[in-house]
Amino acid sequence: AQKITQTQPGMFVQEKEAVTLDCTYDTSDQSYGLFWYKQPSSGEMIFLIYQGSYDEQNATEGRYSLNFQKARKSANLVISASQLGDSAMYFCAMREGWGTGRRALTFGSGTRLQVQP
Amino acid sequence: DGGITQSPKYLFRKEGQNVTLSCEQNLNHDAMYWYRQDPGQGLRLIYYSQIVNDFQKGDIAEGYSVSREKKESFPLTVTSAQKNPTAFYLCASSSGTENSNQPQHFGDGTRLSIL
Question: Do A104 and B88 touch (CB under 8 A)?
Answer without folding.
Answer: no
